[in-house]
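sry for the spam today, last one i promise. struct tokens for design, 420 residues
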């Protein structure tokens, strides 16, 4: 039985653990959340402890390490593991800069002629305000560094953009991540998440997913880390899909190769389908969250072999399993998320939800306290429904949501409505 160490403890990592267990692997996990702990053996090392993770991986003689979150990748965890001779799914720090710095990602796209929004990188608040005055609104204000998916403001007015600039650069809302800002034009169109497994030389594109970033129905309210997702996206035509691969994914890999970066992991491009074609909004260097909760259940038992092949640098014989199922996930968020999420509320009904055919529940921000499961983060749970169509998968997911309760729970009622 192969042995895998999964780094991370959120909803994405719970989805990874479940699919890897279905693949027949013994799974270890760094400080797993309560849902992961039901499937994986806990190791007492933090996801950010590079030396500790390397030591555990060596002591346990794991066959593969899968790095879930972006911060350890940016910090160089994959480099340290590979230097120790451990097969690792996740890019080194050089490739992880695509997510770790939005300014770097913009420079990369311009240099390699990958379509993206016009932008300006600003290093001071005065520079940002001057650029804002010259271009007006709507405009997108982005913190350069990692901000847990929340360092982006789509400002409809100059006043809103100016407030975002000051919050990030002067008030340090996102700490050092906001020391540099990227201000870019506001693109119009449908947004999709395009992910591909990469072995450094080849791409294996996964089905498209669509994330729902705004807190409330109708894409209203604050930007969040994601309130739900759907896969596949049947409203994207074959021609649009071909353009995404030819104009974004393949040039991204070619650009990495040109720059001398051997990227083994997930290339994720957040894309806006504009009237002028696909344009990249951002790069991630790991599975999206909540996109992982709709992608990975559809891969299931094939996941270990796919990730191991990418880690070993040889996807030449790899193929995605055929999937006739659609998947929809609905995020249950804590009271007052995303600004100041409340924790400590008791959660009930997960067992009833998972007893329903086609429902899987993934823990993200949960904790066991005295035998009681409680909220412990902003995004608490992701409830995924599987079905033969997007409409049926959506209905299944919401049947699962209806079983679960905790005080102040927030969720959108319109996930996947744009593609049904």
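last one done:
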């Amino acid at each position: 039985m192969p042995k895998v160490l999964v780094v991370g403890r959120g909803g994405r990592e719970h989805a990874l653990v479940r699919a890897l267990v279905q693949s027949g692997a013994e799974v270890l996990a760094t400080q797993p959340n309560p849902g992961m702990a039901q499937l994986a053996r806990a190791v007492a090392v933090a996801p950010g402890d590079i030396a500790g993770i390397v030591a555990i991986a060596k002591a346990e003689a794991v066959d593969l390490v899968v790095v879930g979150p972006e911060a350890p990748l940016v910090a160089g965890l994959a480099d340290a593991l590979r230097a120790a001779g451990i097969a690792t799914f996740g890019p080194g720090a050089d490739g992880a800069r695509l997510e770790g710095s939005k300014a770097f990602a913009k420079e990369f796209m311009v240099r390699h002629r990958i379509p993206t929004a016009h932008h300006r990188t600003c290093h001071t608040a005065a520079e940002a305000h001057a650029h804002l005055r010259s271009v007006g609104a709507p405009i997108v204000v982005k913190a350069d560094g990692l901000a847990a998916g929340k360092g982006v403001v789509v400002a409809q007015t100059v006043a809103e953009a100016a407030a975002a600039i000051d919050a990030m650069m002067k008030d340090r809302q996102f700490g050092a991540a906001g020391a540099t800002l990227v201000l870019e034009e506001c693109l119009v169109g449908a947004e999709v998440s395009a992910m591909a497994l990469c072995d450094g030389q080849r791409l294996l594109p996964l089905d498209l997913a669509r994330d729902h970033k705004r807190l409330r129905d109708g894409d209203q309210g604050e930007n969040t880390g994601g309130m739900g997702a759907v896969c596949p996206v049947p409203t994207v035509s074959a021609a649009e899909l071909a353009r995404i691969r030819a104009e974004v994914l393949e040039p991204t890999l070619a650009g990495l190769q040109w720059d001398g970066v051997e990227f083994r992991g997930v290339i994720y491009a957040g894309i806006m389908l504009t009237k002028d074609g696909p344009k990249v909004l951002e790069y991630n260097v790991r599975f999206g969250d909540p996109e992982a909760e709709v992608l990975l259940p559809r891969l299931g038992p094939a996941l270990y072999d796919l990730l191991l092949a990418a880690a070993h640098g040889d996807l030449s014989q790899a193929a995605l399993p055929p999937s006739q199922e659609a998947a929809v996930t609905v995020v249950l968020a804590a009271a007052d998320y995303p600004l100041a999420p409340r924790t400590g509320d008791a959660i009930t009904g997960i067992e009833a939800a998972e007893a329903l055919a086609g429902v899987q529940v993934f823990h993200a921000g949960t904790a066991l306290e005295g035998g009681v499961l409680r909220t412990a983060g902003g995004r608490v749970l992701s409830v995924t429904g599987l079905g033969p169509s997007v409409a049926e998968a959506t209905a299944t997911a919401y049947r699962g949501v209806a079983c679960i309760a905790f005080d102040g729970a927030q969720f959108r009622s319109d996930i996947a409505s744009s593609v049904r």
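Residues 190-419 form a domain with the D-amino Acid Aminotransferase; Chain A, domain 1 fold (CATH 3.30.470.20). ok im logging off now
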